[in-house]
Amino acid sequence: MLIDSHCHLDFDEFAGDFAGVLERARGAGVERMLTIGTKFAKWDAVVRLAEAEPALWCTVGIHPHEAASDSLDGSAVLIARAAHPKVIGVGETGLDYYYEKSPRDRQQRNFRFHIAAARALGLPVVIHSRDADDDMAAILRDEATKGPFSGVIHCFTASAALAECALALGLYISFSGIVTFRNAEALRTVARAVPDDRLLVETDAPYLAPVPMRGKRNEPAFVAHTAAFLAQLRGVPLETLAAQTTRNFYTLFAKAIGAA
Q1: Is the separation of the CB atoms in 202 and 176 below 8 Å?
Q2: 126 - beta bridge partners?
Q3: Helices (H), 82-195
Q4: How far apart are the C-alpha atoms of 140 and 202, rounded to whole Å?
Q5: Do residues 146 and 117 lie in contact, with contact meaning Cβ atoms separated by under 8 Å?
Q6: I need a labelling partner for 159 at 20 to 30 A (CA). Which of 23, 51, 133, 147 fits?
Q7: CA torsion angle for 86, 58, 246, 178 (degrees, to 10)?
Q8: Rounded Cα distance, 48 and 21, in Å
């Protein structure tokens, strides 16, 4: 069994095809999926999807792109909404200095409130990091001094140094279809080095379809291609990698066991 640890099934790209997406996922051996909250206005939609489908869990969070319009003034709203039984994580949140769609200070402020909520709830935080390695590492290290928290850097594309920082703090690393791209050799070096017990796989659907599906709308079924690629890269059978990443998912997202 495989789990797509990060997708966006509430997005318009899946409108009218939700049942088909689930059917194709099951056909590819992807039995469970985590659909991710990205802004206040979408939280209800992701929760409804998870409520209606046993194969789905969800998170609630504010993507760094939305930090300007969805600026938090504390962690209380996250804590309240994450009490729902199908909400198994907080995020996605983090820093994105590539597009700079929101001011950096607001991104950082929101990120810290998400970590505080995750810490209070004992849930993992789902982290987005792009072109922000130094600030990301600094915030993670600073927040760790306030008390332990768990989490995953999703769709990892950052440096080996940030991977080492995250792993040292007990975080997990998740790889998307980007690891299969021709120009991603530096990322593949990181993917070879992540310990077996800290590895996750995802699609980030509807974006970033892996080889050989590049150019298509990504969907959870395609995580099987990324998993097969990672298994070959790491020199293990696909069945082994599937078992490892599924076990890691349930270790990190422990609330999923009760919500299944």
Answers
A1: yes
A2: 152
A3: 104-121, 133-144, 160-168, 185-193
A4: 22
A5: no
A6: 147
A7: 180
A8: 16
Q: Using an 8 Å Cβ cutoff, are 106 and 139 in contact?
A: no
pTM, full prediction: 0.97
Scanning the structure block, which residue is given the tokens 């489908």? 53
Is-contact 52 19, C-beta < 8 A?
A: no
Neighbours of 184 (CB within 10 A): 17
Cβ proximity of 73 and 109 under 8 Å: no
E strand or H helix at 54: none
Task: Convert the pLDDT of each residue in 183-233 to its tens digit.
Answer: 999 999 999 999 999 999 999 999 999 999 999 999 999 999 999 999 999
The one-letter code for the residue type at 236 is V
Render each residue's pLDDT in the chain as its tens digit; 260 residues: 999 999 999 999 999 999 999 999 999 999 999 999 999 999 999 999 999 999 999 999 999 999 999 999 999 999 999 999 999 999 999 999 999 999 999 999 999 999 999 999 999 999 999 999 999 999 999 999 999 999 999 999 999 999 999 999 999 999 999 999 999 999 999 999 999 999 999 999 999 999 999 999 999 999 999 999 999 999 999 999 999 999 999 999 999 997 55
Residues 11, 218: contact at Cβ < 8 Å? no
Contact predicate 78/108, CB 8 Å: no
Query: Could you give the angle at which helices 104-121 and 133-144 cross, rounded to 10 degrees?
Result: 30
The DSSP letter of residue 17 is -
Q: Find the length of the chain.
A: 260
CA geometry: angle 52, 53, 59, nearest 5 deg: 90
Q: Which two tokens stand for residue 20?
A: 């088909």
